[in-house]
Amino acid sequence: MPGICKELATKIAHFARFPQTGVSLRQMVEFGQNPSQGTLLRAAQFLHDELPIRLAHRVVELDSLPDNLNQMPSVLRVKRMYIDSFNELVNFPRVSDRIKDAVKGATVHANAERRHLPESNTNPAVSDLPRAASSHWIPPIQHRYHYEVKPAELPVEVTEYNRSFVKSLERIKRRHDPVVTTLAHGVVEYKQLQKTNRIDASVQHFLDRFYLSRIGI
Fold it and tell me: How far apart are CA 146 and CA 46, in angstroms?
């Protein structure tokens, strides 16, 4: 993976081995009803784990484009956006043990109290991608982030952590705002290089899948 250090390239390859977890709109609506700061922290933890996986998949896909499309200047700029966002997230501080213990103490565990969320579905944008075998167990989404946390007296660090993580997501969102137009310009550069006005089916399939995957990022 040219243009980045070996350590970062190894991290991206590692995260790209894991399957992405689909999250439906219904799940988000159910989860987002009157969330407490503790519940938001659970969501932040889920995103902190999940987003690097999704970003790594996009980097690997961009790096593997055929016929020198992956070398177009605009495509390289898009890849750099995903690499920078991946690097920002994997280096974002983890939740401290003190915060974990406080939120764990306020988490609803009893089945009678827990609000059930619908099952997650496979993301159609990535369902046909080959996946390397891995012994790493990825728990289903119901066990990863949707436990409700009762409105309770939580350390002020919970709110501070949530606010800091949101700021990081906002930076990532701004960074990725020009992805669609930049990648489209990369296709124009590719057509000019190939001296053609058409793209083959494999490139079109990639573009369809890539743009659809952005709905989940």
Answer: 9
